[in-house]
Specification:
Rna Polymerase Sigma Factor, Chain: A; single chain; about 15% strand; 8-stranded mixed sheet; Rossmann fold; 14 strands; alpha/beta; two-stranded antiparallel ribbon
Length: about 350
């Protein structure tokens, strides 16, 4: 598997807020090789806490990307970039504001899912790829995949949104707000100006703990932990959540947590019109995947998108996979998902080649 770790800089990026971000850096990785026709490129878009390192050792979706896997790097050229507002090489609140010489912190402009996708398109243009074979991701990645299909339909042959939604429900917004409030209640948050000092680690850890609960199902937590004790005065599940929370502090920026969750909460395709009208004359193929045990992004939200697509006679397949790991199923329970994605990609590639 050929891998490239890279970054590129663009002079400016116009944001939905009306602010111009200049300059802007984007970190990305690629796997596999681009074919001569430039027709085998796949964009993988990550979920909230992911980054550009999607495959290989330590890659967040290494179970799905690689030789012989769902996104087969012996056949396809796979690209993944860190999102705008992130903290793993792409411009975000922890980056230096060129006007002040200090980190942006909370003076960083608010960003949207559409802004993230706009930057991704600039990267795809930079790589000289006219049309993506597919764009795929789970959770927030699914939102980006939908944004690609709606905003740049001529640039994608297909889209694979997984465990996602066209807009957050009140419950989804509520969980994100609890996480933001936990961070902002940390005495070390200092209104976001903590760079060079003590990090708001306690607040960020609690935010991650809350989030991690939503990613799992009751069944998976019962199987993994039950009521087992780690110590005489601590349950196993308590110890696990603390470990997850404080490991997260080592790799993620609290301000990025605030900005990215707000981007997720404000994402709403229906603000541009009724959902079916957004897919009018859309010629891309779609594969939507949901999970029976996912209560954070429940199957009904995927079905709303499927209904809108079918209402416009779009080419859409839908699979609600039986899984017990909740929202995290798209990351850890991938056997069925692999077979579905592999078949969909193969047929899409054949159709794209026939129509070239």
């Amino acid at each position: 598997m050929v891998t490239e770790v890279a970054s590129c800089s663009f002079d400016r990026l116009e944001l939905d807020s009306g602010v111009t971000l200049a300059p802007v850096e984007v970190a990305y990785e690629t796997y596999g090789e681009l074919n001569a026709a430039r027709s085998n490129a796949i964009l993988i878009v990550h979920a909230f806490s992911g980054d550009a390192h999607a495959a290989g050792e330590g890659g967040w979706w290494s179970s799905m990307i690689g030789p012989g896997k769902a996104f087969d790097t012996d056949q396809y050229f796979v690209i993944c970039s860190n999102v705008l507002g992130g903290c793993r090489g792409t411009t975000g609140p922890g980056s230096i504001n060129p006007e002040t010489g200090c980190p942006w912190a909370m003076s960083f402009p608010q960003v949207s899912i559409a802004d993230m996708v706009r930057l991704q398109k600039m990267l795809i243009d930079h790589l000289g790829i006219g049309r993506l074979l597919t764009v795929s991701g789970g959770s927030m990645g699914g939102m980006q995949a939908l944004e690609w299909a709606v905003t740049y339909p001529e640039r994608v042959a297909s889209a694979i949104p997984i465990a996602t939604t066209a807009r957050h429900s009140a419950q989804q917004i509520a969980f994100n707000e609890v996480g933001r409030q936990a961070i902002m209640a940390d005495p070390d948050w200092n209104n976001g100006n903590y760079y060079g000092g003590r990090l708001p680690g306690r607040g960020l850890a609690v935010a991650r703990m809350v989030g991690h609960i939503t990613y799992m199902s009751d069944e998976s937590m019962r199987e993994k932990f039950g009521r087992k004790l780690r110590t005489p005065d601590q349950f196993e599940v308590e110890s696990y959540l603390k470990y997850r929370g404080y490991k997260f502090v080592d790799r993620f920026d609290a301000n990025s947590y605030i900005y990215i969750t707000r981007a997720m909460d404000t994402f709403d395709l229906t603000q541009r019109g009724a959902l079916p009208t957004l897919f009018e004359s859309n010629e891309a193929r779609f594969l939507l995947i949901s999970y029976t045990s996912d209560w954070l992004y429940p199957p009904y939200q995927s079905l709303e998108i499927v209904k809108a697509l079918r209402g416009r006679n779009c080419d859409v397949a839908y699979c609600n996979l039986d899984a017990r790991y909740g929202h995290d199923s798209f990351l850890v329970e991938v056997e069925q998902q692999t077979e579905v994605v592999r078949g969909f990609l193969a047929s899409t590639f054949r159709e794209a080649a026939a129509g070239a």
